[in-house]
Amino acid sequence: MRSKLTLKHCIPIIFLLILLSLLGWELFFAQPRDLPSALIGDDVPNFALPTIHAPDKLMTPNDFKGHVILLNVWATWCSACQMELPMLMKIKSQYHVSIYGIDYKDQPADAVKWLKENGNPYVMVGSDSSGNAAIDLGVYGTPETFVISPYGKIIYRHIGVIDENTWKETIYPMVKKYEK
Amino acid sequence: MMLVFITRAFATEDIYQFKKQTDANRFQQLTTEVRCLVCQNQNIADSGAPLANDLRQKIHDMILANQTDNQIKQYLVSRYGEYILLKPTLHPATAVLWVFPVLGLFILLFLLRRQIVQSPLNKEKS
To answer: Using CB atoms, which residue from B38, B51, B80 is nearest to A38?
Structure first.
């Protein structure tokens, strides 16, 4: 009789512990900013953006096909993008991975000037002055980087600045898998 | 400060124009159901964030292009995930959200009933 009673009394306590650990996990370990792209595994949405250097030439997902690339969404008004730039330059010069840019809600002339002053890590930059292509990609803000497979599929999306750590530990291993 | 908000409210009405009243109503309804992604617990109708602005514009354009509410929501969910809808739709991944409250209530009622039936007070009566 006695042992039965204690077991019964334990149930609410166990329930409470489960709830508390769930809350604790949400509080300390959950990352509400860590939002995986809904497009992972899908084809890059179709877009045709005038390039900033030659507006009559369009940048489309067809330009990326054949090798794994990074598609970086940035803007001249975004200060975090300026912080990210040295890392992108390093990826270009040391790792030889092609980076394509989408200049988000910006003036192409400003972008050309900005790249001239700060350095240009991009193979090609398309101008998305309306922000429509970015919505098609499910972009939250700048900078944001997509890893795109040689077959034109979205493999990974990184929100925020790419630093040495994210590059070496997350993005580069993914790129290496496709690079042969 | 108040004045700024008032002007903004009117401006929003002016920017998104519809020929049909039903379309305008759909726009009102949809923008309250879509989350402002960069401000987490606000809908895009109430938010002044640039991304919310763009999403409002997109919904406006899609309504004018005769897309149904479902097509519009589907489009947004396929880009931004289920998270973009303030009220998640019912499917296997979200089922627990919808079922648990009802289930919990039933379990609670069941336990309560058992307590009452087994309570010494009731036993004395019977």
So the answer is: B80
* A residues 142-171 lying closer than 8 A (beta carbon) to B: none
pLDDT tens per residue, range A101-115: 999 999 999 999 999
Q: Is this complex scored with an ipTM above 0.85?
A: no
Encode pLDDT of A76-92 as tens digits: 999 999 999 999 999 99
Instruction: Look up the pTM and report it.
Output: 0.76
Contacts of A132 in chain B (CB under 8 A): 54, 58
Q: CB of A86 within 8 Å of any CB in chain B?
A: no
CB A103 within 8 Å of CB A127: yes
Q: Chain A closest CA to B85's CA: distance in Å?
A: 13
Confidence band of B64 (pLDDT split at 50, 70, 90)? very high
A19 touches chain B (CB under 8 A): no
- The answer to whether A149 and A120 have CB atoms below 8 angstroms apart is no
Q: Which two tokens stand for residue B31?
A: 């923008």
A162 close to A97: Cβ distance less than 8 angstroms: no
- A70 Cβ partners below 8 Å, 6+ apart? A91, A97, A98, A99, A100, A145, A146, A147, A148, A171, A175
